[in-house]
Amino acid sequence: MNNDNSNKLVQAFSTALEIDPALVKDELKYQGIPEWDSMSHMFLISELEEAFEVEIDTDDVIDMSSVAKAKEILAKYDISF
Amino acid sequence: MLLQNKTAIITGASKGIGRAVATLFAEEGANLFLISRDEEALKQLAVKLGSDSNKVSYFAADITDQDAMKAVFSEIRQTKLSIDILVNNAGIMEDAVLQMVTPSLIDKIYQTNVFGLIDASKRASKLMLRNKQGSIINLTSIIGTHGNLGQTIYGSSKSAVIGFTKSLSKELAGINIRVNAVAPGFIDTDMTRKMDPKFFDKNMASIGMGRMGKPEDVARVILFLASDLSAYVTGQVIGVDGGMII
Q1: What is the predicted pLDDT for the residue at B65?
Q2: Residues of chain A contacting B130 with CB distance shorter than 8 Å
Q3: Does residue B48 sit at the A interface (CB-CB below 8 Å)?
């Protein structure tokens, strides 16, 4: 497990969604809380791209439906957790 | 200077209105990323506009080529410069009465004037999101606002730009990214010089101010929309047509 990347991921979610880092769990889902709506999803993508220095494709932006899915998608960009 | 410490991306930057915008923005202190298919013209322009106080970079790319545009924006992102302005200027105009319109003509015009513009907006606004501020200026046309015979496809592509501008302005207003459009009339560019003389004369006669517009006339309005002078303006379409009536 890569703790550094896990911390970056939690920080990116927390910053983009303006939520407590403790809430960033694998089970957290897109539109599962009021803070994770379509607009904050755009901020989230921006934060993740900046944190991991990747450019996330549109299909992956659409597919990113949970924290667990975000990890799965980022793995495609050679980011391990 | 109105654009000191600002960075702008300009498509279709090598000639006409795009070139005038690049020149004016450089005079106002902006860093520039210039995009066009014409590498040689871009290179010369970049050399001319760069100075100690502003950086000018260029990319030879076709805005309809999504892979190329992905690579361009990836390079822009890697510079870590904050992107403040996008000028979606690249566009093409071809005329045909409806019964002579082919699917390939529709595809060609829409790929550049609509799909390419949407793609560039999507990529640039993503870069603007982090700073929660920015200005996107889309080039439409008086043909998009008023229509014209023989220009159903060009005109409708430019009308699509207006619809896109208005909806995107609402989507991004809450994060302080402004989206506006400029609708030039009859402007002295390569595009209008290729026009059928019959239409050229008719257009000239319809301009209230009695002269063709210059690319610089349009560039100054784009500067207004790019700068903080228009900080509370979004979702607007500003005509730059010298009182032209279609």
Answers
A1: 98
A2: 46-47, 50
A3: no
User: What's the half-sphere exposure (Cβ side, CA atoms, 13 Å) at B56?
Assistant: 26
Rg (CA), chain B: 17
What ipTM goes with this model?
0.87
Q: Decide: B59 and B52 in contact? Cβ < 8 Å.
A: no
Q: What is the CA radius of gyration of chain A?
A: 11
- Residues of chain A in Cβ contact (below 8 Å) with chain B: 39, 42-43, 45-47, 49-50, 55, 58
CA distance B83 to B80: 9
* Whether B110 is catalytic: no
Tell me the pLDDT tens digit for each residue of A15-55: 999 999 999 999 999 999 999 999 999 999 999 999 999 99
| Maximum separation of any 2 CA atoms in chain B, in Å | 54
Listed as ranges, residues in chain B with pLDDT below 50 are none
